[in-house]
Amino acid sequence: MEFMTASKAAELWHISQRRVQVLCAEGRIPGVFKLGDAWAIPSDSSKPSDSRLKKTKKEQTENECD
Questions:
Q1: Residue 49 placed within a domain
Q2: Domain span at 24
Q3: What is the pLDDT of residue 23?
Q4: Is residue 62 part of a domain?
Q5: Using CB atoms within 10 A of its CB, is residue 59 exposed (0-12), middle (13-18) or buried (19+)?
């Protein structure tokens, strides 16, 4: 199995390196582990969904109607 660094994942996923580190620390990326101070992320990992995003007012009203 091949691994990538947090900086490489950040480049591939178009997010900051710090955000990747937070995702790793939260356990949101399967198969990740820490080597010293660096995170080892499986190369075939995909970017996890962003749970920080809130629903827009339009999405909220659509869900209320369902």
A1: no
A2: 3-42
A3: 94
A4: no
A5: exposed
Q: Please name which of 2, 36, 44, 37 lies closest in space to residue 17, comparing C-alpha atoms.
A: 37
Q: Does an H or E element contain 39, and which?
A: strand 38-42
Starting at the edge strand found earlier in the chain, the sheet holding 33-35 runs 3-4, 38-42, 33-35
Residue-level pLDDT, tens digit, the chain, 66 residues: 899 999 999 999 999 999 999 999 999 999 999 999 999 999 999 998 877 777 666 666 666 665
DSSP state of 48: P
**H helix runs in the chain, sequence order:** 6-13, 17-25, 57-65
Q: Domain tally for the chain?
A: 1
